[in-house]
Amino acid sequence: MAESSHWLAGRVAVITGASRGIGAATAEAIAGAGAHAVLAARDGVTLDTVAGRIREATGEATAVPTDVSKIEDVEHLFAVAEETGPVCALVCAAGVLTPAPFAETTPEVWERTLAVNLTGSFLCCRAAFGAMRRAGEGRIVNIASLSGVYATEKFPGLAAYNVSKYGVIGLTEAIATEGKELGITAICISPGAVDTSMLRRANPELRPGLTPFEVAELILALLDSPLTAASGANIPLFSNA
Ligand SMILES: NC(=O)c1ccc[n+]([C@@H]2O[C@H](COP(=O)([O-])OP(=O)(O)OC[C@H]3O[C@@H](n4cnc5c(N)ncnc54)[C@H](OP(=O)(O)O)[C@@H]3O)[C@@H](O)[C@H]2O)c1
Fold it and tell me: If you measure from the C-alpha of residue 22 to the centroid of ligand 1, how many angstroms do you get, rounded to a whole number?
């Protein structure tokens, strides 16, 4: 068999939010490129379904039910991943969106949104950073949103979500700064409307401009490139749909 041209081939990659939507499509693309995909999300049943699909396509996958907002779950996720081999890639796709007008945004909605979208990304990136430092290499892709990009149109009811995504963009820059000397890069992507259950819940009227598979293809291309000079960048994904 011809040797794979993918950097990912033979490496271990952790993908959060891998039970559906962008995360599931990304996990399948990464496994298709020859990596062992370690899948994380809370719902173990749907996670197992995605892992099963990957194995049916002769890929390698391990499902680890995980709540990314819980440090003990994240530590367990990376401990399982490292049993498979050095963790060299991470995609943080886990996210929640609970629409609420600003004046009715409860502290619970605010805290939960930040806990999953921002603290969850921090906990996973921090665990991955340690593993990547040990491995001597690593590539991280975080998923923010156009909602977290300065001077782009904002939709009402998304204050907590928007702020969490601004944070993810900042987190990615910070990781890039400290990863530079260690061979660790971090890139953020900020999609517009992608055709997933999150979008349908958030705004059923909004026409999606991207499919999860298109976003997954981009993430795969990013992970397959060193991108050293671009580390820390955020890539907004506008679409014309
Ligand atoms: N769809 C869009 O238009 C769009 C646009 C810009 C950015 N994004 C971002 O892209 C990412 C993926 O979104 P999506 O559209 O694919 O959403 P989705 O279909 O709702 O999928 C969200 C994923 O996150 C997981 N998740 C939620 N809470 C979690 C937690 N506490 N711990 C671990 N996993 C958790 C879900 O699984 P469980 O429920 O089983 O945990 C699911 O796998 C999110 O960060 C989202 O903000 C989406």
Answer: 7
